[in-house]
Design goal:
Blueprint: E1 3-8, H1 13-23, E2 27-31, H2 43-57, H3 68-80, E3 85-89, H4 97-109, E4 115-119, H5 130-138, E5 144-146, H6 154-166, E6 172-174, H7 182-190, E7 195-198, H8 205-214, E8 219-220, H9 230-240, H10 245-258
Parallel strand pairs: 1-2, 2-3, 3-4, 4-5, 5-6, 6-7, 7-8
Length: 262
């Protein structure tokens, strides 16, 4: 089974399904999203969508109300295509710890979703993920996915590694190969058994090659669609791996085990 471990709701969802079919991808982990760059028709409209993205990844989404529309879109996509999409739900990080626990219990576990994410703490504040890790641990070790590209800092990655060490039952996935700090991300994931590294939006091909070489059993094929393309992301993995067990694990085997699908 080929599993795209990182994607966001598309408008319309049929465009996303077409991309998955073209790439030969069986299923995709699906996150909600506030920005929709795929709606843009010119530079001006893209700037508007990217401004929303900048607000989201800067940790300025602003409580539960800022998430409701994204959650609704996610639920609609999951309900329409349960055979293709694997749902994760993000959690506002400006809530009190007991409120975080309530959201995880009600809106993640209670809705039958597979994990938590994509979390977007403000730069320098990855410590805000701690209550989510605690709640995930309380529910048997739900996978948690954290945004890895800018504005995530190298110190944020080190903070996440410390949290992973404190909650070893929780699989903690760093997305987008850690962005500009990909060498730090590879090293931290390699040395922290409960961490995983998702490979989308790599700046250089040898970053993907090195990540797979160092942590072949904890690297995950992902596209970050609509920002990336599933076919290109799959081709990148296949370019740096030969046919066989390692490629199969990166393209879906590891994700299937992580998600309880194996």
């Amino acid at each position: 089974m080929i599993i795209d471990a990182h994607s966001h709701v598309h408008d319309p969802v049929e465009d996303h399904l077409a991309l998955l079919d073209d790439a030969g991808v069986d299923r995709a982990v699906l996150f909600g999203t506030r920005p929709h760059p795929e709606r843009a028709t010119d530079l001006e409209s893209l700037r508007r969508e990217m401004a929303v993205l900048d607000e989201a990844i800067g940790g300025r989404a602003g409580g539960v109300d800022g998430y409701r529309a994204a959650w609704r879109e996610l639920d609609e996509a999951l309900g329409a295509h349960p055979d293709r999409f694997i749902g994760f739900r993000s959690v506002p990080l400006d809530l009190a710890p007991h409120q975080v626990a309530e959201v995880v219990d009600r809106d993640v576990v209670g809705c039958g979703l597979r994990g938590i994410g994509e979390l977007t703490p403000p730069p320098g504040r990855a410590d805000l993920v701690e209550p989510v890790m605690r709640a995930a641990s309380d529910h048997g070790g739900l996978p948690v996915v954290v945004h890895g590209f800018a504005p995530t800092t190298a110190e944020d990655l080190r903070t996440l590694a410390r949290l992973a060490g404190a909650y070893p039952s929780v699989p903690l996935v760093i997305s987008q190969l850690g962005g500009l700090h990909w060498m730090d991300a590879i090293e931290l994931v390699r040395d922290t058994p409960s961490m995983f590294l998702e490979l989308s939006t790599a700046n250089v091909i040898f970053a993907v090659r090195l990540a797979v070489k160092e942590i072949p059993d904890r690297t995950l094929f992902g596209s970050d669609a609509p920002y990336g393309d599933p076919a290109l992301a799959r081709a990148t993995v296949e370019r740096v791996t030969g046919p066989g067990e390692v490629r199969d694990q990166v393209l879906g085997g590891t994700a299937a085990r992580l998600l309880g699908l194996a």
